[in-house]
């Protein structure tokens, strides 16, 4: 019986095929364009459609890494007047690519029709010290898109991507606390933290481009409510309004919006939306405290111009009454007004507590001594439950990655060994989860 099950598993692994990525077939052609985003992208070996040509990009998504650049490009690619480059070219930030010249760069662009604009995205441009000057040398009037998210969450997401990549390539990994802390202090030289210093990098860009050529997209809003952000991008790029609500649907399994266009439905790659590891609360507070002043400096850089040159209808919320995602509450408190998109909270009966503002402006409650022991235990239990849930999510993510890698290798031996590793990992997790919850009730 065991041999039969092994043989069935072997056949399943050999015949397994991952669902194909969304591809576009050019009208009148039976050959798909590999890796096509949906509009205007074509493989270099295919004959281009009549009336198309390649152009240098009219707009570039310059970053930030782990800010939602891929989501922005794929959603923007819904627009029929957009031709999106399929890959990150790293032309302006990698010397070896820049040395190939502008003709090489233009040749990497997709074929497009005269009514289309070409859009390229490489997240590394935003943090590159040389990219702004190089892009300006190519086209001083180019329109730039910069998508940002809560800088603390961006750091954790950055670490998570590197963690999974190293795990996938069988390289050693370190806990996030070991990366964030060095010699007992916050490791501000850690690259993931450096990438979240939005004000530092923005100053470099503003030395070469006026602010009205840089449109800032709220990455957190894009994920939870994509249409308004994309409509602002349409206006910034002078595109006719073509993106509508029916182009998006919420995928309950993945937990974010997916795209519906031309009868096709597609979601972002499985690597998007990975579970984040739990971070030590003390380390997290240190990180938020360090980034807080940088957030404020960035807000001063992108605040509304005194000349009133900006059309507030196209300025994203993060440039009106708040600064960055995660800063809404603090700016609302200072201005005494409710920022757009921020719901006024309703007062609810609760036990006495002290309200304070966290490093990123998030209003939180600290229980006072008048709270009962039951209330404190309940809060502790909930906190422990959330910690355990986070750890479980990470382990499930690791499980999915390990199993998928074994399936891709089509190796029953690897699959069996990896399965044992997963079982041992979960066996370690269950006592840890119980300990967390049990400790909270002491």
Automatic annotation (TrEMBL):
Gene Ontology cellular component terms for the protein in this record: Golgi lumen
GO biological process: glycosaminoglycan biosynthetic process
Positions of 3'-phosphoadenylyl sulfate binding: 66-70, 149, 157, 257, 272-276
Primary subcellular site in the record, as a coarse category: Golgi
The keyword Glycoprotein belongs to this UniProt entry's keyword annotation: yes
Pfam families in UniProt: Sulfotransfer_1
The protein's name in its UniProt record: Sulfotransferase
Lineage, uppermost ranks: Eukaryota, Metazoa, Chordata, Craniata, Vertebrata
């Amino acid at each position: 019986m065991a041999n039969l099950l092994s043989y069935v598993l072997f056949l399943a692994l050999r015949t397994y095929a991952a669902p194909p990525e969304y591809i576009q077939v050019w009208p009148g052609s039976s050959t798909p364009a590999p890796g096509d985003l949906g509009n205007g992208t074509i493989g270099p070996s295919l004959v281009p459609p009549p009336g198309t040509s390649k152009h240098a990009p009219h707009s570039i998504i310059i970053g930030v890494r782990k800010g939602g650049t891929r989501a922005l490009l794929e959603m923007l690619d819904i627009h029929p007047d957009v031709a999106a480059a399929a890959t990150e070219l790293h032309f302006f930030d990698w010397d070896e690519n820049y040395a190939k010249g502008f003709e090489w760069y233009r040749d990497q662009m997709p074929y497009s029709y005269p009514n289309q604009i070409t859009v390229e995205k490489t997240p590394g441009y935003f943090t590159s010290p040389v990219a702004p000057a190089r892009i300006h040398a190519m086209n001083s009037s180019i329109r730039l898109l910069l998508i940002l998210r809560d800088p603390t969450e961006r750091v954790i997401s950055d670490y998570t991507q590197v963690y999974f990549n190293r795990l996938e390539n069988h390289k050693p990994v370190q806990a996030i606390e070991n990366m964030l802390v060095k010699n007992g202090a916050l490791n501000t030289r850690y690259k993931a933290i450096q990438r979240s210093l939005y004000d530092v990098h923005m100053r470099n860009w503003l030395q070469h481009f006026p602010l009205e050529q840089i449109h800032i997209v709220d990455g957190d809003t894009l994920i939870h409510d994509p249409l308004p952000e994309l409509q602002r991008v349409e206006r910034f790029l002078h595109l006719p309004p073509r993106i509508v609500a029916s182009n998006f649907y919420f995928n309950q399994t993945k937990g974010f919006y997916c795209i519906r266009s031309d009868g096709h439905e597609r979601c972002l790659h499985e690597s998007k939306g990975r579970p984040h590891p739990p971070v030590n609360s003390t380390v997290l507070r240190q990180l938020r405290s360090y980034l807080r002043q940088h957030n404020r400096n960035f807000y001063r850089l992108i605040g509304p111009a005194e000349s009133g040159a900006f059309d507030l209808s196209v300025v994203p919320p993060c440039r009106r009454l708040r600064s960055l995602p995660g800063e809404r509450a603090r700016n609302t408190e200072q201005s005494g007004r409710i920022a757009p998109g921020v719901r006024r909270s309703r007062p609810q009966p609760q036990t006495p507590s002290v309200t304070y503002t966290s490093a990123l402006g998030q209003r939180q409650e600290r229980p006072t001594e008048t709270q009962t022991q039951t209330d404190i235990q309940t809060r502790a239990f909930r906190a422990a439950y959330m910690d355990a849930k986070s750890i479980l999510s990470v382990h499930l993510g690791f499980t999915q990655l390990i199993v998928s890698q074994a399936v891709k290798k089509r190796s029953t031996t690897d699959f069996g060994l990896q399965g044992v590793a997963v079982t041992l990992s979960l066996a370690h997790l269950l006592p840890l989860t119980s300990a967390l919850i049990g400790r909270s009730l002491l």
